[in-house]
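User: I'm putting together notes for a lab meeting next week and I want to include a structural view of one of the chains we've been expressing. I don't have a solved structure, so I'd like a prediction I can at least talk through. The sequence is below, exactly as it appears in our construct file.
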Amino acid sequence: MKSNQLAYIYGLGAVLLWSTVATAFKVALGFFSPLQLVLVAVVTSIIALSGILIYQGKLNLLRRQFLSRPQFYLMSGILNPFLYYYVLFAAYDLLPAQQALSLNYTWAILLPILSVPLLGHKLTKTDIVAAVIAYLGVFIIATGGNITNMSFDSPLGITLGLFSTVLWCLYWIINTKDTGNPIVSLLLSFIIGLPLVVITLLFTDSLPSLNLNGLLAGMYVGLFEMGITFVLWLMALKHTDKAANMSTMVFLTPVLSVGFISWILQEDIQNSTYIGLCFILCGLAIQKLMPKMNNKVDKKMSL
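Assistant: Thanks for the context. Below is the predicted structure for the 303-residue chain, given as structure tokens.
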């Protein structure tokens, strides 16, 4: 099988699995509190990622990579999994899955905005236009389409959903300076984040119950949101000669996710969700495609 064909198989596998996790979040939150779900999912992901590194013969990199930058991995572990998934699951606990999903997908729009003060990047006109369009979609979803009366069903849930995108962007930004093995880095973050989850849980909540259905749902989240799917995506990027094609496939994820939410959770998908999600996806498309189109035009003009 050709390398690019393998890339698409890995990429489609990752996209399909990521498309199911919003549904899995809501199912698991029917058994656990947000922080309890973080614990179950993180433990599962640590086991899965450790198994992958053992299979690859790279588990010995853990100690070396941690000792090279302990403060970096401490910050990384605080952001992800501890804060990010705690906040994200709390948002899903308060909002319909369709709303929480849509809000979470604006992180890619926020990333270049936060990169200006934190990385010294320049904000382009394309970034600004994309952000305006995408956050208009957020506003439509948050108000249920009633944009004139400014009525929000769960202001706290919406705030947490948007705050989760800030945390995810911060995690990505600090990881731009990580030169280590990405799977090892992710495992280190989870290992460091786990004690924070346990301590917070003991002081504010209780340990999760040993309900089989709940554990299976939580383990599904750990495997296919945090662990194995990340590795599949890395494999897709490794085998492709056009990383841009892989990133474009991510546009399928929210569309498929809404289908799973409607089918499995039986949520009545509101028209405002469809409209708002279209705005968000248009913003993402503008952000990704406009620079390429401008480059092509510039090349033709220079000929």
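A couple of points you could mention at the meeting. Residues 297-303 have pLDDT under 50 and may be disordered. The chain is about 80% helix and 0% strand.

User: Perfect, that's what I needed.
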